[in-house]
């Protein structure tokens, strides 16, 4: 016969449960062998009576032991057994429930080991809230990392948000707390109530791994079945996996903010839902010819005005536009229509909102404790502690989560420079040098390399893109070559120089000619993407259209020329919504784009040009397949500053295929202007931004030209051609 437990010792353990400071309440509560039978304990502080209902039958009264802990001893039982608890509250309110403290842990030793090592690549499958059958009972398992907490409870709709009722158990030295709660199902709201180990008030936190949230400004996490959605994009994923060499593919990206692309005016001007957006956006993308859409951050964020760049829930799509499966439907539909989906991802910083990651267990858990490393002065946010295994694991698993669970085709990593440099936006004395006395953040560099190596290894064809604005070398080179491992880098220098040039009155452009030529000195040092992003149409900068000089006709002509120049320039393409039809107003995240303008001839012409640019771009490998190689570009006329003329050749990796691009960025028509060409013979006009259908003056070369064997611009042949005003022309051998 087993020796009965010592009463004084049990009293002490029970008191720790009552005070909500027991790290393993399962060792006290639930069913336990004791002497010649078993003892069952339950903590229901407001109950007036409890009974045990054994699965084999019967009804055993429980006695109140202390502080709301009830106990029943059943003699003659040599094993534990399944049972229910019948709980009576004042007013004869009686509930029958399964005891959560009668279940074994749902986390295994290997889960805890890999999580502690920072190598659990599917961490989201174990942490957070998971619907499952456990010991034949359906319910939800909860797990949260709070290593310095004195105690953690899960609270929610199922227990009246009472932190006394569902204290969690600490899983050894892992810092992870776990509890299986029977009969908690889909759609249940919950949070974690954390009792700081260093004292102070309890904190109520949303689940860092929640798959679903309430609609902001509400902040509760919501239990969600991640396995329910049935995908229909297998063909797309198979094709993507075969496209290993992404640098030789056409990339024309349409960046959008989901909440303001197109709003439902007749229904209170509300944003469209994920399911409403799917067919409307897919139809538009197919018309305009973009290869991908890029969504401003979709992870849940407390403040809509942050556009998603201050993330509160890294594993939950924002509930503003619908259910998580609705976002999956959106991505699924895009893939079935042949459109890739990229998302902006924000691992560099997170907001200070009380319900989110900051001071999660009462200490600086996800962020650095020292504000010289843990605070981002530009945005008033906190910075992840990349040196901590669990934090790196949280973020890298999150990247894999969006790729594997939402079939995302790529992540554009926000604000990479803020992670690379310890002194980013900090004055002397406001930052801590690295161990060598330098400004490089070695922990963040390690994190980014691990992230990119992991994505490349597990998901060929998926890309990771860096928004990086400095001269850091080899951002888009593989890690084994000493790089950071990103697939592409946004070319911010090109963007600033190009917009600066095009915003100038043509009379002054000859003095700034180098702003369009300088970028070719470094164009092949990285795998670049050329961005005209949301950042360029906010905060008083105006729209792309608004930056163009001249009267409305000239503004439209300049914008058409800008786009054709960009699409011919080495580098993948990205433009923010509204730019493609020349919206005059600056972007407002609370308003729809001005879609009525697409029916006005001038703006319709810009939109038609964009559609043709994308169509020709995808059809002409010379415009994309050697973007990162010097052989793919050759200047013809880099120095015609007085005429505001530029001319160059784009060459394909496929022998003989090329496109000649000629830009006249002056409002004057240039007749009989001689330009060199690589071949003698007939060239056909692929594009003329001054064509009538685009709203131009329809000057040009009748759709073709014949070169003659007169050497010019270092080429064996040349032709005299008409250069329309404020225009770009493309020619290819015909």
Description of the molecule:
A hairpin with a 5-residue loop joins strand 17 and strand 18 (270-271). Strands 16-19-22-25-26-27-28-29 form an eight-stranded parallel barrel. Strands 1-2-5-4-3-6-7 form a seven-stranded antiparallel β-sheet, with helices on one face. A six-stranded antiparallel β-sheet has the order 30-31-32-37-34-35. The chain folds into four domains: 7-102, Sandwich (Immunoglobulin-like); 109-223, Immunoglobulins (Immunoglobulin-like); 233-490, TIM Barrel (Alpha-Beta Barrel), CATH 3.20.20.80; 547-733, Golgi alpha-mannosidase II (Immunoglobulin-like, Sandwich), CATH 2.60.40. 22% of the residues lie in helices and 27% in strands. It is of the alpha+beta class and 734 residues long. The protein is elongated. The chain contains 15 helices and 37 strands.
What's the short version?
22% of the residues lie in helices and 27% in strands. The chain is α+β, with helices and mostly antiparallel strands and 734 residues long.
Briefly note the CATH topology name of the largest domain: TIM Barrel
Percent helix among the residues?
Answer: 10-25%
Task: Give the overall average pLDDT.
Answer: 96
Q: Can you tell me the CATH architecture of the largest domain? A: Alpha-Beta Barrel
Amount of beta strand: 25-35%
CATH class group of the largest domain: Alpha Beta
What is the name of the CATH superfamily of the largest domain? Answer: Glycosidases
Shape: elongated
The span between the termini is 97 Å
The number of helical segments is 15
Count of strand segments:
37
What radius of gyration results from the CA coordinates? Answer: 31 Å
Low-pLDDT ranges: none
Function: Catalyzes the formation of the alpha-1,6-glucosidic linkages in glycogen by scission of a 1,4-alpha-linked oligosaccharide from growing alpha-1,4-glucan chains and the subsequent attachment of the oligosaccharide to the alpha-1,6 position.
GO cellular component, one term: cytosol
Subunit structure: Monomer.
Family: Belongs to the glycosyl hydrolase 13 family. GlgB subfamily.
């Amino acid at each position: 016969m087993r020796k009965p437990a010592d009463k004084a010792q049990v009293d002490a353990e029970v008191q720790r449960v009552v005070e909500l400071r027991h790290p393993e309440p399962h060792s006290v509560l639930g069913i336990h062998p004791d002497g010649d039978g078993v003892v069952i304990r339950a903590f229901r502080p407001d109950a007036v009576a409890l009974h045990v209902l054994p699965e084999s039958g019967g009804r055993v009264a429980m006695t109140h032991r202390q502080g709301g802990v009830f106990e029943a001893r059943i003699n003659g039982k040599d094993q534990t057994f399944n049972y229910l608890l019948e709980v009576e509250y004042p007013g004869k309110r009686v509930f029958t429930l399964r005891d959560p403290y009668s279940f074994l842990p749902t986390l295994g030793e290997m889960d805890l080991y890999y999580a502690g090592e920072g190598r659990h690549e599917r961490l989201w499958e174990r942490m957070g809230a998971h619907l499952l059958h456990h010991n034949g009972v359906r319910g939800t398992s909860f797990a949260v990392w709070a290593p310095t907490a004195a105690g953690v409870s899960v609270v929610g709709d199922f227990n009246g948000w009472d932190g006394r009722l569902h204290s969690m158990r600490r899983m050894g030295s892992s810092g992870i707390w776990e509890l299986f709660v029977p009969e908690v199902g889909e759609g249940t709201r919950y949070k974690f109530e954390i009792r700081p180990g260093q004292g102070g008030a309890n904190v109520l936190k949303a689940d860092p791994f929640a798959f679903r949230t309430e609609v902001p400004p509400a902040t509760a996490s919501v239990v969600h079945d991640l396995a329910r959605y049935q995908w229909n994009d297998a063909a797309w994923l198979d094709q993507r996996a075969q496209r290993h060499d992404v640098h030789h593919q056409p990339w024309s990206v349409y960046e959008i903010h989901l909440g303001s692309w197109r709003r439902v005016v007749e229904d209170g001007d509300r944003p469209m839902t994920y399911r409403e957006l799917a067919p409307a956006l897919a139809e538009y993308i197919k018309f305009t010819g973009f290869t991908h859409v890029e969504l401003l951050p979709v992870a849940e964020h407390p403040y809509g005005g942050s556009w998603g760049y201050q993330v509160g829930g890294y594993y939950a799509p924002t509930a503003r536009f619908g259910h998580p499966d609705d976002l999956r439907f959106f991505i699924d539909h895009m893939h079935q229509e042949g459109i890739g989906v990229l998302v902006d991802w924000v691992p560099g910083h997170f907001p200070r909102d009380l319900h989110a990651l900051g001071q999660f267990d009462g200490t600086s858990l996800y962020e650095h404790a020292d504000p010289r490393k843990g605070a981002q002065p530009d945005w008033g946010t906190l910075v992840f502690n990349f040196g901590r295994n669990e934090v790196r694991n949280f973020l890298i698993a999150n990247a894999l989560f969006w790729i594997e669970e939402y079939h995302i085709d790529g992540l554009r990593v926000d604000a990479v420079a803020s992670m690379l440099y310890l002194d980013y936006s900090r004055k002397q004395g406001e930052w801590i040098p690295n161990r060598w006395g330098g400004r490089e953040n070695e922990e963040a560099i390690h994190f980014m390399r691990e992230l990119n190596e992991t994505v490349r290894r597990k998901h060929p064809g998926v890309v990771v893109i860096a928004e990086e604005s400095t001269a850091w070398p080899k951002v888009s080179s593989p890690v084994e070559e000493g790089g950071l491992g990103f697939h592409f880098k946004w070319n911010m220098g090109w963007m600033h120089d190009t917009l600066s040039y095009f915003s100038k009155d043509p009379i002054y452009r000859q003095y700034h000619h180098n702003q369009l030529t300088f970028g070719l000195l470094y164009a092949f040092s990285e795998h670049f993407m050329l961005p005209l992003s949301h950042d360029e149409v906010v905060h008083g900068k105006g729209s792309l259209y608004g930056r163009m000089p001249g009267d409305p006709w000239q503004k439209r002509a300049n914008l058409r020329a800008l786009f054709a120049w960009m699409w011919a320039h080495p580098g993948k393409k990205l433009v923010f919504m509204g730019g493609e039809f020349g919206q005059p107003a600056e972007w407002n995240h609370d308003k729809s784009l001005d879609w009525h303008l697409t029916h006005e001839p001038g703006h319709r012409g810009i939109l038609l040009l964009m559609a043709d640019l994308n169509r020709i771009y995808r059809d002409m490998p010379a415009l994309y397949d050697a973007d990162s190689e010097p052989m793919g570009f050759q200047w013809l006329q880099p120095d015609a500053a007085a005429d505001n003329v530029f001319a160059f050749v784009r060459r394909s990796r496929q022998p003989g295929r090329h496109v000649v691009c000629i830009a006249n960025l002056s409002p004057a028509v240039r007749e009989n202007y001689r330009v060199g060409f690589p071949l003698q013979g007939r060239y056909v006009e692929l594009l003329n931004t001054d064509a009538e259908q685009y709203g131009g003056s329809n000057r040009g070369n009748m759709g073709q030209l014949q070169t003659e064997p007169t050497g010019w611009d270092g080429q064996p042949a040349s032709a005299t051609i008409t250069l329309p005003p404020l225009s770009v022309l493309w020619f290819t051998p015909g």
